Amino acid sequence: MPHELRDDPAANALELDYSSPDGDAGNALSHDFVPVRSMRESDLAKIISIDAESSGSERTDYFSRKQDEALNQSGVRVSLVAEQDGFPAGFIMARVDYGEFGRTSTEAVMDSIGVDTGFRGQGIGRFLMAKLMANLKALQVETVRTEVDWNDIPLIGYFSSVGFRPAQRISLSKPL
């Protein structure tokens, strides 16, 4: 018998199980409960606002450059925005590289991720990450790389929960 709408909202809610028996959470989560779309130029102000809420600093120049790179300087657009009620609620910025430092490989670099504080705890970061991973897998990207501040325990915990592990590389820097 088909599901009929009733006056009781709880009776109308069908719970669909998209979990994957093979443990592929990225594929399971890529079924859109949260609308995720490609980033647009018009998203810049909200991206800056979301980041400022999290970081405590306004980084307009950084995100303007990153968005220009993602939308205008890359042949493959992979940066995404999640929406709630038609408004940007989170973003993820990434790019696909085909090698660096003398190595050739298909690798994506994830530069930034952010979720509006009013929408945290609703799985938006996970939906963004799952959609990014599904898109990158379709592009035959082999690995995804990002960097996290050593002391940012909550962000390290988030990345661990979505399958990231420490890389076998050491990033070196020298102050000038």
From TrEMBL:
GO terms for molecular function: acyltransferase activity, transferring groups other than amino-acyl groups. InterPro entries: Acyl_CoA_acyltransferase, GNAT_dom. It holds the Pfam family Acetyltransf_1. Residues 34-176 form the N-acetyltransferase domain. SUPFAM superfamilies: Acyl-CoA N-acyltransferases (Nat). Residues 1-29 are annotated as: Disordered. CDD domains: NAT_SF. Gene3D superfamilies: 3.40.630.30. This is N-acetyltransferase domain-containing protein. It comes from Ruegeria marisrubri. The lineage of its organism: Bacteria, Pseudomonadati, Pseudomonadota, Alphaproteobacteria, Rhodobacterales.
